[in-house]
What does this fold into?
Amino acid sequence: MDNFKRVQEINRQLNIDALLISNGNNMRYVSGFAGETGYLYISQNRHAIITDFRYTFQAENEASGYEIITIASGGYEEAINDILSLDNVNRLGFEANDMMYARYEELKDKLNVAELVPIGDEVTRLRRIKTSRELEYIKQAQAIGDKVFKEILDFIKPGMTELEIAARIEYLLKLYGGQRTSFEAIVASGVNSSMPHAVPTLKKVEVGDFITMDYGCVYEGYCSDMTRTIVLGKASDKQKEIYNIVLEAQLAALDFIKAGRKGKEVDKIARDIINNAGYEGCFGHGLGHSVGLFIHENPRLSPSEDDILEAGMTETVEPGIYVRGFGGVRIEDLVVVTEDGHENFTHSNKNLIEL
It folds into this structure.
């Protein structure tokens, strides 16, 4: 992969001699190396993976064209110092947003450079606009999620626990080709569904419950994310009212989203519908977020997001209403922004399902 050339341009712009990338997702994006341990070093002269023996062969296979440096008994600091000396580096950039303070202090003490320079999210921002290949991976991940939703509807029965349903979802995601889950599946029933990020419990699902299911998987390194809320049994009038307001808000936001809109403008479309319906204060999170190698990426769809959406960015669109002591509804699709609208990767039924 030649994304290292884009990093070299960042180095020039920031007037640094070299950059040490520690964020695993950034390392994979730039080099192709998906190992769990190591650093990516990029200067104008060199681009190298620094890792330990456990990942040497993997780095050689995944990071074609990169120098692979396996650390010895002196550890990472010695290996990094060797390459810094050869490259005559004085100003070394690092990813402060990704590094624990204790690790920064250790590197500051042991690395032979005049200055460590934090680079903010400069590399992470390279990942915002997805390539056609990245979008295909995300689409495939989301297709797995749709397949799981269809099957889980036949699995859910009164008396099952939230944990049982969550376990089945995660099993099916892997059975159908997901490398792993992109986050731990959320299954929240009854009053638990009033908590947007409830953790599945031993609570048994009962007739009359809302059941919110939020999950995703990873395909070729890229995440999916979707949410559907159903009712076990017949929905009450209040359940139907809340569900239909959330669906209206989501459809309006989907109709509005396109390149050139600010994240907060899209959020406002959905939020105003929910607030004007009498549920102000019941939608306490942002409308959505980007998805890629990491499940929660930028830009966001939120009241504070001033960044402008561009074609090729992915976004979740997931409004919700959460009523304490009653329950809640969230409906989430994953889309890619286009010049004149969006392409929706999520195809599961969004009409209220009564099991």
